[in-house]
TrEMBL record, chains A, B:
Protein name: L-fuconate dehydratase
EC number: 4.2.1.68
Origin species: Brevibacterium salitolerans
Pfam families given in the database record: MR_MLE_C, MR_MLE_N
PROSITE patterns: MR_MLE_2
Cofactor: Mg(2+)
Amino acid sequence: MSTITDISVFDVRFPTSRHLDGSDAMNPDPDYSAAYLVVRTDAEDGLEGHGFVFTIGRGNDIESAAIEALAARLRGRDAEPILDDMGEFWRELVHDSQLRWLGPEKGVMHMAIGAVVNAFWDLKAKRAGLPLWELLARMSPEEILDLTDLRYLSDVMTREDALAILRRSAVGREERIARLKAEGYGAYTTTPGWLGYSDEKLARLCREAIADGFSQIKLKVGADREDDVRRLRIAREVCGEGYPIAVDANQRWDVAEAVDWIGELAPFDLRWVEEPTSPDDVLGHAKIQRGIHPTPVATGEHCQNRIVFKQMLDADALRVLQIDACRVAGVNENIAILLLAAHKGVPVCPHAGGVGLCEIVQHLSMFDFVAVSGEMDGRVIEFVDHLHEHFVEPVDVHDGRYWPPQLPGAGAQMHQASIDAHLYPDGPVWAEAV
Amino acid sequence: MSTITDISVFDVRFPTSRHLDGSDAMNPDPDYSAAYLVVRTDAEDGLEGHGFVFTIGRGNDIESAAIEALAARLRGRDAEPILDDMGEFWRELVHDSQLRWLGPEKGVMHMAIGAVVNAFWDLKAKRAGLPLWELLARMSPEEILDLTDLRYLSDVMTREDALAILRRSAVGREERIARLKAEGYGAYTTTPGWLGYSDEKLARLCREAIADGFSQIKLKVGADREDDVRRLRIAREVCGEGYPIAVDANQRWDVAEAVDWIGELAPFDLRWVEEPTSPDDVLGHAKIQRGIHPTPVATGEHCQNRIVFKQMLDADALRVLQIDACRVAGVNENIAILLLAAHKGVPVCPHAGGVGLCEIVQHLSMFDFVAVSGEMDGRVIEFVDHLHEHFVEPVDVHDGRYWPPQLPGAGAQMHQASIDAHLYPDGPVWAEAV
């Protein structure tokens, strides 16, 4: 038995707004940030669990306060009952009768739970000596199912449905693990597409993306229609016919405007249209999907929980599902969402970028390929070449593919020096700025 | 011109769990709480703006931290540009490009914005020397519309639709104000229905509710089916045939279970079935509404924003709409929701109770009657006879009706002595307990 001796919480912020990296139609000046925690126990192994919520600046303190509120109730508890039954731990945090009033299951509180859950997954994987994707991929179908909470999902996917998916994909796992290690997992890049870049920089970055082997690019749209047409024309010319180009509107439109605007962009052959409207608007997305068929709607990075994803799938409101490592309540809820997507036969192409989202979410896609959907053809994980140097195991992306992480853990661990330098507001990076 | 000199934030909690008041199937031991703020300016009038988020205990500190984060950006600003354009102030807070990552428009951050917005409404109404309902009811249709943000709503209600509703109800306002003052506004009571009470107490409280003139009662259900049947039989026997009895499941069920369970309760003639499942599940509510027709589904106290309400109405997922004073982003967003309900012809019967929810939400229903829907027949505001003594102007409920508040302001102001006594964790009420 070991005791949770300490949970430290850090408000870590990177001053990305100084260079306009990451600017889009809704987020003109983000400072990529992490409300970050480290779990320590008195076990002799000295292992730590790291997790965080990604935010884009202001509000990272509120997210840190929410993590601290959870941490206060965990310090001093035994670690093993938590690590041995992560499904029960998830339910304890999510269904806390008082805390759920703050959601339920959405926003600041739900994301904080995700960070805490993920930190314990990091610790569990380190104790097992495995990267998270492999730890999960070696569990039995019943063990995986016990991690999930299927409450509120049964009108679309029953427990039996979910178990059938996992049992089907229990066959051939070793072959898929071998294939994953040999071939990697597809990646696409958003690097060329930020709104803050000039046409010349866009064209150059498109050429670089293809030279680097990426199988898709994505452009931000939605701020100005003429700009969008001009930038898409440039990208299409550079990339050539047939090369997958997605666009991302970052929730910019109402329904009719989305259908109309996308209609003007559709001749450039769009792989998908991402976040055309409010992430809460299931019926709105369904109307847009009907209006722009056969161009697929993609969404998910702001979808608050499995219940919204269930409806999106039920209503044919999306045809590409984008999980996010830090939006829902951690690994457990993302497994439920992967199961829903597999049940409906919809491909999962995760949102990533920000700070550390690539490092974490790759574990989920690789686990999905090995043990849930069994598919990876045509599926791609977003990649942005940014801030990876702060992580103990930065993503290994080369030849346009993600290559499986090898170190034990869940991928969230930053270097202590990076945390210290970027503490807000007193770390040296910020103290200098002020 | 006046300057915002101070915004004070208080974590106020009432130890209601000690007596099991307010227990239901999902909330066994709530401590009714308020993350509370007071806005002060250097104007000579000395007027203050009070507002709060209602929570049920743990997490009130997180909500307070979110309010503090907003307050920090408002101190030192001029008050008049805010008070003179409350629509613009709402948009500034809700669409803050960094803070919206924490939602967008949901959970801790959105509710905190609601508290801040409502505190400024309190100040504005005090400066005008009017109770909030009357301040709003005396605005022109165009002024009211400028308060709202109709973004993401246009596929169901356009700006023209909303303006048409307001212009129609601009006629006859004085007569409706007179009628409101003469007749009050209907109330129903949840007092008999808490799960923690014995059958004898239930029967006695039903008799008292009728004797007190309430036109409806509501019972909590969803924990145990046999208990529900027995308690409904008692209530129906005491109240008599035809007396409206609603039930509230507090999100307890999945879709099929809800339809099945309600089927067993329907013979007791239910006025409505409240919160049968997750408040996020628009399509689930629609399936339940189809399954239990003609019994109406009611929901809203946990609906995160106008976009979810839009879909609930669009999908015939509810037939009684329950606004809440502290869930969405304040008065402005509730006006948008009242407009949506009026546009679809669905009655609004607000959620209240907790601490102070009755005091605030009555203003919205009265404004709705005078200037939006123009209707109040068959509409009722929830009433729980609890904690009103802490407010400067407690609700005036007698003869089973809410009577219009008369003091200037928005209804949220607590006595300073109540705030001081219930400060968490250092106020005397809590210091004694620990």
